[in-house]
Amino acid sequence: MTHHLQIVLRDVTPAVVREVAVPSWLRLDQLHDAIQIVMGWLDSHLHQFVVGADLGSGTRYGPPDSEFDDADNERKVTLQQVAAAEGARMTYWYDFGDDWIHDLTVKSVSPSDDAGDVLECLTGSGACPPEDCGGPWRYQELLEILAQPSHPEYAETLDWLDGGWDADRFDIAAVNAQLSELLAFWQRMARARKSAAGKRRSGRTGKR
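Below the sequence we write its predicted structure tokens.
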């Protein structure tokens, strides 16, 4: 099965939106890896998924870490288990300092075709904000500064951004190249685990 997801970064203008097709069997830690790529983040901060009404009352899933006493292990649950049907919603929260909140909506769930698993960004708009820029509100201030060359913080901001920033830029071809590598990696790992399991079974059989 394949999930068609829409991902919207909350409280940001211009809008940052992605639509992506992913295997329904993905564990949430794998979905995290895919989201990092399609959005353009650098995976340098903590994250959680929240399934339910809102951030305050939903069921939380995160890395198996002592800092996440209130969260279930994201490696033990799949996308299909927490968002099985069209219209299902969940939240992806990245960077607990800057608080980048992503709203995920299941647009459709369909059978996989004969070509096998699909991991692909279907469409997207808006550049992912720079890491560590201060969250949505500070990002909006940053864009306002860049729009005013006479602003006292213009030169400093431009230097921090290595010379420029295009808030509308999104390179879908580059994103899909990375997703292709990620899917190939998962498939290699799955084959390796299957092979290792087969050898263990053969070893136990040979000892009988």
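The chain has five helices and eight strands.
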